[in-house]
Write a structure and sequence with these properties.
Blueprint: E1 13-26, E2 45-62, E3 71-74, E4 77-78, H1 81-98, E5 103-110, H2 120-135, H3 142-152, E6 164-167, E7 188-192, E8 199-205, H4 215-221, H5 228-248, H6 251-270, H7 281-297, E9 302-305, E10 311-316, H8 320-328, E11 335-339, E12 346-348
Parallel strand pairs: 3-5
Antiparallel strand pairs: 1-2, 1-12, 2-5, 2-6, 3-4, 6-7, 8-10, 8-11, 9-10
Helix pairs in contact: 1-2, 1-3, 2-3, 5-6
The structure holds ligand DP6.
Length: 353
């Protein structure tokens, strides 16, 4: 992360951050019992931070005499209701850390459509945490920022780092600091930087409708599935395989595990009470096509899916053009977005207002 100073007038302190989203190879699905409000996951997860799917956020703090309340505008729309409350709760965390009662003006832009199945909460809460903390003059390293970002959105803890990242469940370890906001037992760290391996995430958008159950709601339902314990029992070995596959840049070792955990996570979703069925007919069309291309024609591509209907096709850079061409020609696919690995959050000199 770059170390530029916050700017603005004496009463206004402002900073801007750009953070990449991420795609998980081993997923975060389900929060640990009793730690729901802290977003402590059931298992470690491993992801790649995305270069070409990012959020840019400017946060300006003013004393409450100048600004009566927080305002949050994302992609030109002012947030209201529960989504606004979720951001305000995160601003409260930053206010508590700095010991201030200032109000914030937050403006945030995504360079990808929010309903595209790319996790805007990951890049959004990472950028909000870094910009908000910088503008308050809080001197927190990336690990502490990861702990704070996690409480806004679990997957945001991973977007505090570039390249290939592991988020430790960590809850069994000793408490490292007394301030629970900064409790960094459950934080992410970088395993390899963005130059390590030229992987591509080719995202096949089959639906842009808003999902009916958010990830946050789903994490609390995971425990109701009889398959959740079975999935977490398998995850230890999968994590180990993914770490080895990334270290050795071994795509044929990585691919099958990607698919196994995505399908295991969706099995948990489908069998929770109430059941969550994120797939659309177009989802299955893409999954079947990926399997056929690989098994019948030898195209080196595997899929993963987040909490939505869109499919992430993972391949190495030299196969990306072929994968884009094939997936773009499927009738169910409305749009294709591709990203490679990106860096961690960057503080920018230019502000959005
Ligand atoms: C399926 O991090 O979006 O993308 O903590 O409630 O914001 P909240 O959930 P979120 O969950 C991500 C779920 C996932 C898998 C993953 O990215 O690991």
């Amino acid at each position: 992360m770059t170390g530029r100073r916050a700017t603005g007038s004496l009463s206004e302190r402002k900073a801007t951050c750009r953070a990449g989203s991420n795609i998980a190879f081993i997923k975060y699905w389900g929060v640990a019992d009793g730690a729901e409000d802290l977003n402590i996951p059931l298992n470690n997860s491993i992801s790649m931070t995305l270069a070409d799917a990012h959020t840019t956020t400017t946060v300006a703090w003013n004393d409450s005499a100048c600004l009566p309340g927080d305002t949050v505008v994302i992609d030109g729309v002012q947030l209201e209701g529960a989504p606004a409350e979720r951001v305000v709760a995160h601003l409260d965390r930053l206010r508590a850390l700095a010991g201030v009662s200032d109000r914030a003006r937050v403006v945030s832009n995504n360079n990808f459509p929010m309903a595209s199945g790319i996790a805007s909460s990951a890049s959004g809460f990472a950028a909000l945490t870094v910009a908000g903390a910088a503008a308050l003059g809080l001197r927190l390293d990336a690990t502490r920022l990861s702990a704070v970002a996690r409480q806004g959105s679990g997957s945001a803890s991973r977007s505090l780092f570039g390249g290939f990242v592991e988020w430790e469940q960590g809850w069994e370890r000793e408490v490292s600091v007394s301030n629970s906001l900064l409790d960094s037992r459950s934080v992410a760290h970088q395993i390899h930087d963005d130059e390590h391996w030229a992987l591509r995430d080719v995202i096949a958008i089959v639906s842009t409708g808003a999902k009916r159950v958010s990830s946050s709601g789903g994490h609390r339902l995971a425990a109701t599935s009889p398959f959740s314990a079975a999935r977490t029992a398998s995850v230890g070995a999968w994590l180990d395989t993914v770490r080895r596959a990334i270290a050795a840049r071994d795509f044929s070792l990585l691919g099958p595990v990607l698919e196994a955990d995505a399908l295991a996570m969706h099995a948990v979703m489908m069998t929770s009470a109430p059941s969550l069925l994120y797939w659309q007919p177009g989802t299955l069309e893409v999954l079947q096509a990926v399997r056929a291309w690989r098994e019948e024609e030898g195209v080196p591509v595997y899929f993963t899916i987040d909490a939505g209907p869109n499919v992430h096709l993972m391949c190495e850079a030299d196969a990306a053009a072929e994968v884009e061409r094939r997936v773009g020609a499927l009738p169910a696919v409305q749009r294709v977005l591709t990203s490679g690995p990106g860096t961690g959050p960057q503080l920018l000199d230019g502000h959005l207002f």
